[in-house]
């Protein structure tokens, strides 16, 4: 989690507490006056009242001025942080090729603008593609990894015909970023810095116009399907997190049951299911999602319901970042059984009408 204000460059070499200098200096002047000035030692009340009033008025004016300057600087810092968040973790479009979409991030650190969770949804020639992930880094390294993975996804999602090829592009982008960080850190990084051990959990989804759902999972929690009820969309054993180990030659892209009209997929990071209340009980995510099953609800309504329940469960005190993405199918697909993509391969296949959607 990043606190942008803690890393803000100093403007023109000015100290961060420069606005407080005038009131502090005025307080020093008042102290010297009271201790050394002959007028301050006069016993007549009018003189002492007049000098005290002058020092008080001027001191209050200086403190208020410093307070206003600090408020303006804080607003500017918040504006910079919000602008960075809009670019890095931009708002999801409300509609994509017949799908309704919504997403939100809940930072664990109060006042932080950007955390280690990431998500994106884009419409491509191969269908709507969605990513959600969680960087296991800290500080600026986590933010850089988020930027590297999301930047690669936004480009490669339009170019790679299969999820396998897309995942390999993400892996190369993460490797480049980690390698640059290690080089920048010099001998310390090579000896085992946090950057050298950075990895990301990633869940990739392909949602086709006919309702087919293809999924490739690297150490991330499985999403939930919300329809008549709520159930995990588990499709086999996930791969290790991206960056922890090299990717295997064959990637297990899975084809799951088609998303029916009004059904939705609820994607989340592990901060949701691992959130605890004051008694140490985990957040009952599946039970909360069951409350919104049945008649179709908008993705924004589902997120609002789960967010409200999560904050009530934890008393508003999150110990980890949390991200939610909901995708509801407003099209009319037909059902199909959940099965692995033929051959469990990631070789390229034909465009949208393919049966083996991933690529080396």
From TrEMBL:
InterPro entries associated with the record: Bact_Sigma-Reg, PPM-type-like_dom_sf, PPM-type_phosphatase-like_dom
Segment forming the signal sequence: none
Record has Transmembrane helix as a keyword: yes
Segments for region (Disordered): 335-360
Listed SMART domains: PP2C_SIG
Keywords (A to Z) from UniProt: Hydrolase, Membrane, Transmembrane, Transmembrane helix
Transmembrane parts of this sequence: 52-70
A Pfam entry, by short name: SpoIIE
Stretches assigned to the PPM-type phosphatase domain: 99-329
Protein name: PPM-type phosphatase domain-containing protein
Organism encoding this protein: Streptomyces kanasensis
């Amino acid at each position: 989690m990043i606190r942008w204000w803690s890393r803000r460059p100093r403007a023109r070499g000015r100290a961060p507490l420069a606005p407080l200098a005038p009131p502090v200096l005025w307080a020093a002047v008042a102290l010297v006056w009271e201790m050394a000035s002959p007028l301050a030692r006069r016993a007549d009340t009018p003189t002492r009242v007049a000098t005290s009033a002058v020092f008080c008025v001027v001191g209050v004016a200086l403190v208020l001025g410093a307070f206003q300057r600090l408020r303006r600087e804080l607003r500017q810092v918040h504006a910079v942080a919000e602008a960075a968040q809009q670019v890095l973790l931009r708002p999801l479009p409300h509609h994509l090729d017949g799908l309704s979409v919504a997403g939100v991030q809940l930072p664990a650190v109060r006042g932080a603008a950007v955390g280690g969770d990431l998500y994106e949804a884009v419409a491509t020639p191969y269908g709507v593609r969605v990513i959600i992930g969680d960087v296991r880094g800290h500080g600026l390294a986590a933010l850089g990894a988020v930027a590297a993975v999301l930047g690669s996804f936004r480009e490669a999602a339009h170019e790679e015909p299969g999820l396998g090829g897309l995942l390999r592009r993400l892996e190369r982008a993460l490797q480049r970023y980690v390698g640059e960080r290690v080089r920048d850190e010099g001998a310390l990084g090579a000896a085992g810095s946090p950057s050298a051990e950075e990895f990301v959990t990633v869940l990739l989804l392909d949602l086709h116009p006919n309702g087919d759902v293809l999924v490739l999972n690297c150490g991330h929690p499985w999403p939930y399907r919300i329809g008549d009820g709520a159930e995990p969309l588990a499709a086999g054993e996930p791969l290790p997190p991206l960056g922890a180990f090299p990717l295997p030659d064959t990637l297990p892209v899975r084809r799951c049951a088609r998303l029916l009209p009004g059904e939705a997929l609820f994607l989340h990071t592990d901060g949701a299911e691992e959130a605890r209340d004051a008694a140490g009980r985990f957040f009952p995510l599946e039970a909360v999602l069951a409350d919104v099953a049945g008649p179709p609800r908008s993705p924004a309504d589902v997120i609002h319901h789960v967010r409200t329940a999560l904050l009530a469960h934890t008393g508003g005190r999150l110990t980890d970042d949390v991200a939610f993405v909901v995708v509801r199918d407003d099209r009319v697909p037909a059902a199909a059984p959940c099965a692995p993509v033929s051959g469990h391969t990631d070789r390229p296949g034909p465009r949208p009408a393919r049966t083996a959607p991933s690529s080396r």
